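Suppose a colleague, Dr. K., hands you the sequence of a protein chain of 199 amino acids and asks what its three-dimensional shape might be. Before reaching for any lab equipment, you can write down a predicted structure in token form. Begin with the sequence itself:
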Amino acid sequence: MKRKVFAVALAVSAIAAQAQVAEPSKFGFVGALGINSGGDTLVKGQYTNGEPFSIKAGNGVLLSFGMTYALNPSVDLQGTVGIESDSTNASNGSIKFDRMPIEALAFYNFSDKYRLGGGFRSATGAKLSSSGVASGLNADLNAGVGVVLEGQYMLGSKNSASRFHPALYLRYVSEKYTSPQTKESINGNHLGLGVAVYF
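The predicted structure, expressed as tokens, is then:
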């Protein structure tokens, strides 16, 4: 009797193990790092050596992290929260434009190498701040809901057994900011290039 129970338990364990191998989790994680360029000029000037500088509404470095869900073999959903910043620094002062974009995207997998995604984002907490001789340029901006279009090239097979999948991406973002004080509309449209890692 004990042998039969042991045999049944062993068979159930084997079936469960095979099911786990055949059906990996549909949930995953993603991290991305990129650089953006575009948008209206918020601040411009010159350093003391005569070199010009500018802060634009679409410029900056974007670092983001989030989760993914495989809706089906062709479609993946992705939600991320990021930190996006553009700054200029001098020995006697600095100016920064920071925001925290929240994005919700859906990707269509054309193959295990190419995919195209689109969705929405909101650059929350948008703030222009300054220090030193540049003090006085502080301002909060309200961000509208923007649209994201992103193409990716996977550096490796997305359909491989490994959950680690790096990818190169090129994206276009259409968004606008509004100054609460002046009600001025500011164009934040930009192009972005970077690397995403899925795991």
